[in-house]
Design brief:
Elements (H helix, E strand, L loop, with lengths): L10 H16 L1 H5 L7 H19 L1 H6 L1 H6 L1 H25 L1 H22 L8 H18 L12 H30 L4 H16 L3 H4 L7 H26 L4 H7 L2 H14 L5 H20 L11
Length: 312
């Protein structure tokens, strides 16, 4: 591992970047709602694939400079790319089978556990301090209150087997997200620039995701509305959002980062109420308050400094 020196950069800047990324990600469900005739698998594949290629273009110099390091860490690149590729396919399928609320709760709620386990089992780090556990429990409680506060999903979730499969897919999606976050952090600790680490994984994942559009993307460019949705999803949440997330990972542990992303379903719920017109009960607003406390604990109690010195 590259010898690390402490960075004087305020870790709260990384937290803010991750929260901004989560805000952008929280807009995806509402925006995708305006393209009813497009498969959610197609939207996810296009957004993640094209967003990854855009990241590679912006980070081209960093990729060229870190080519040798990336080749040495090629196993991490492939591992992270698989996590990125699996995530949209399982996440959107979980929402389809179990409903948007349950699918989102299982996916986002399980990611911090998976990330913490990776850090504990592989990186030999112990993220399970008291404040982290308290904040995570508050966040998960808030997620549950938020998930079950609204109306039943429009899909046929009365089929218990379908719901169980959806929950299982949500757990896989959460694990794949945690795997991507942990792998990116690991490559940065090995001296790879954050832009190079993120974009390298997304480029490889694009080679997996984009060909799937041959099967699922027949309506993706059928009209201007669908095109606008696809371009927004690729350019804003998936490109800009992951650039912000990569910046945040420089000063934030992967386990903490995944807890901070609990802000995403709060944003999604607010957009659903104010734009789409969905109803949110008292328990939903209470759940958002719990998540707010969770986020406050995470951003105010983390005293770590970056161990990843790098040049622009």
């Amino acid at each position: 591992m590259t010898t690390a020196t402490a960075n004087t950069e305020n870790p709260q800047a990384g937290h803010i970047a991750i929260l901004l990324a989560s805000f952008l990600w929280g807009s995806t469900g509402t925006v995708a709602n305006f393209a009813h005739d497009v498969s959610p698998l197609a939207i996810g594949a296009f957004a993640m694939g094209v967003g990854g290629l855009l990241q590679a273009l912006v980070a081209l110099k960093n990729l060229q400079r870190d080519t040798r390091k990336l080749w040495r860490l090629k196993a991490y690149v492939v591992l992270g790319a698989l996590g990125i590729a699996v995530y949209p396919l399982t996440f959107y399928s979980a929402m389809h089978l179990a409903g948007v609320a349950i699918g989102t709760v299982v996916t986002i709620g399980s990611a911090p556990f998976a990330s913490a386990l990776l850090e504990w089992l592989i990186s030999k780090k112990n993220p399970f301090n008291r404040i982290w556990l308290i904040s995570l429990l508050l966040g998960l409680l808030g997620m549950l209150l938020l998930a079950f506060s609204g109306a039943a999903p429009s899909q046929s979730t009365s089929d218990q087997m379908g719901v169980m499969i959806g929950i299982l897919l949500g757990l896989i999606a959460g694990a794949s997200y945690a795997l991507y976050a942990w792998t990116g952090k690991r490559m940065m600790e090995e001296g790879v620039h954050s832009k190079a680490a993120m974009s390298s994984m997304f480029v490889v994942s694009a080679l997996i995701l984009l060909p799937s559009l041959i099967i699922t993307g027949d309506q993706l460019f059928a009209n201007l509305n669908n095109i606008s949705v696809a371009l927004y999803m690729a350019g804003v949440p998936m490109f800009l959002g992951y650039v912000l997330f990569g910046f945040g990972l420089k000063t934030t542990q992967a386990s903490t980062a995944t807890v901070l992303t609990l802000f995403e379903p709060v944003v999604a719920a607010i957009f659903a109420v104010t734009i789409v017109g969905e109803q949110l009960g008292v328990s939903g607003w209470l759940g958002m308050a719990f998540i707010g406390v969770c986020l406050w604990l995470q951003t105010r109690t983390s005293k770590q400094t970056s161990l990843i010195p790098e040049t622009p």
